Amino acid sequence: xxxxxxxxxxxxxxxxxxxxxxxxIATLATFGACADGGVNRPALSSTDLDARRxxxxxxxxxxxxxxxxxxxxxxxxxxxxxxxxxxxxxxxxDTQPSGGKLDGCYGVLAALECIAALEDAGxxxxxxxxxxxxxxxxxxxxxxxxxxxxxxxxxxxxxxxxDARDAxxxxxxxxxxxxxxxxxxLEMRPDGETxxxxxxxxxxxxxLLEIASVPLGVVSGIQGVRWYTVRCAGTAxxxxxxxxxxxxxxxxxxxxxxxxxxxxxxxxxxxxxRVTFGRWSVEPNSINTIPACVTFTIDFRHPDAxxxxxxxxxxxxxxxxxxVAVETLFDHPPVHFPHTVVRHVANACAALGxxxxxxxxxxxxxxxxLAKHCPTAMLFVPSRGGISHNPLEATNDEHLVLGTRALAxxxxxxxxETP
Amino acid sequence: xxxxxxxxxxxxxxxxxxxxxxxxIATLATFGACADGGVNRPALSSTDLDARRxxxxxxxxxxxxxxxxxxxxxxxxxxxxxxxxxxxxxxxxDTQPSGGKLDGCYGVLAALECIAALEDAGxxxxxxxxxxxxxxxxxxxxxxxxxxxxxxxxxxxxxxxxDARDAxxxxxxxxxxxxxxxxxxLEMRPDGETxxxxxxxxxxxxxLLEIASVPLGVVSGIQGVRWYTVRCAGTAxxxxxxxxxxxxxxxxxxxxxxxxxxxxxxxxxxxxxRVTFGRWSVEPNSINTIPACVTFTIDFRHPDAxxxxxxxxxxxxxxxxxxVAVETLFDHPPVHFPHTVVRHVANACAALGxxxxxxxxxxxxxxxxLAKHCPTAMLFVPSRGGISHNPLEATNDEHLVLGTRALAxxxxxxxxETP
Lengths: 419, 419
Prior knowledge:
alpha/beta; 15 strands; 13 helices; Alpha-Beta Plaits; homodimer
């Protein structure tokens, strides 16, 4: 097949092979396949090692060199014609315990399909192109999540990460040793090479593209997040003997706090506010005892750092006023992807004649950390029903293919950017 | 000491020995004493068997005969002068895991003190007087609670109760065998003897007497209770990617249900309403996932059966309207103690010149079941701060003594009632 397309970016996009892409997704999903159609592939588990072996074989067949690093990230590199820093793309292949076939995997497999399309089209780019599978993004086996990408960006994190233990007591250090023994010939990636750019293709994991009936999302950044626990104290007392007016029910206080927090979160953040009270614990949690203590968590997200800061202040004031204790568990500032990379993503959509929506990512991704290392951007395809972290996670085939074509287009432009 | 009192009821009341009563409470509290001042004495545990041995020795010293029955209840009998059914009094000596010295124990020890006072005063009553220690009232080791008293009233319950298992897997049948081996000479109480009356002296376990500054409570009945679970379904979704308007948060629904239930419970039951939402469970209970399912319990109590029935109907209507599932876990109708016994309790308070408050019991007691067997009443003394089921459980010494005097007065009158 000769497409006679003069623009190499468009040529690569058009050489993306739909059947090969979809088959590769189906094949990777066999590693850790569950009876319910979902996938369970914990990071660095034996299932994950089998899946990694499969990817390595595929990359070698495509002519790539394969490297790893201190956190067992996998790098599949297609050389460029010039001695320039590479363009990175990819995502992760570990899953939630009851995850789907696409979260993370799609970004890795679409990137490998881009390399296959470049091969098929006989295109040589100026810069090297490296496909990365980041280790332990989900944070399900080892906490925190996004270990591989955050350690790539800040190698000093590894000392702490290596002590992390899974539920069976296995440390990350042990799991990395197992990985090293499974792949004894894998060379370490040379240190100190800064990437030219990173682009991550991912399913949206939310409903916005589907609601808008738009097939592609140009991701302008990742909203910031703050996690807290709120501890509300009351007085345990007998359900039968304590008059209503003499009670100090901790759940009554917690419900009042939740309402106040939701109200000022909405006032502060408007339509971009995401505030979730996901985890609840009640003591003594007895049917005939008035709750003595209720602890709940807050997950507050917003793309504007000033809103996150204002939320933090109002929460502290509200807690002081109501006599409850608040503790911060985690926070990450909003990430704004630079126009220099985002424009290539938007241009790719336009070049393919596809409608796109510019949006913020609601979920965390490896790109959140890579953005500290090099100019970064993301591309989304729709999630059916907005469902993710679930065996029902799905994206229409034509969206999966279109997303891969847009990625190929964008990567070729980035790989051909010269200083 | 010769008190020259012609009324034997008053004579017995005045012979109650404060020091002996308080010492007996302190001694029983040594069986299962905890470092925090509380008591942990699970029903039929080795600690409980030691405590039972102590009570049996005391009763034998007082000249009582001792019997047991199929549920290991202990009966300490002082004979009367006529072949008439006995008057029963007593409570239980098992405790909550972190219980106090008084809940249950006070009623048993005050009753033994009444027998000692009758002995000291040389009073012979027409009817026998039997002090009972009912097995497993708290329901902490074996479920349900009030096993001993409910099986006494309805022996057919024993077949089911014997299969109940504690947290270590020991059945009640095993525990009863251990009890039988520990007390091999204990005779079984003769079957078929209906009691003339039952009077239970107990700490209030609530704040009403203390708030009213009244030392004695004449208990007119025990409020009815209904226990339910309410299951509210939502949709699990990603905290970061799901817009607020697209959420179905199960906790939002549960909080709305709780508010509606509390509102109609208060409207229906007025000041006597006791409604508690004590146990909460949230799924998946993850910080970054919108709650998919929230289950909570309702403990609704009221002295009026019509109010309990109306609550049941309104709850069903509310659940149907809001699309939530309600399940009934337990119910017990209100108990109204007959005037024939209650008047003896009230007369005793008056005869001692003590102020009393007529009130309903908010907590369950063995008297709830005995009321099905024979005319029953209860007498309360104040609980400091309304606190119970807690090492801090306490009652002023003068109230403990006064309650015992009133019990003695009341028991002598009941024991001298002839057909």
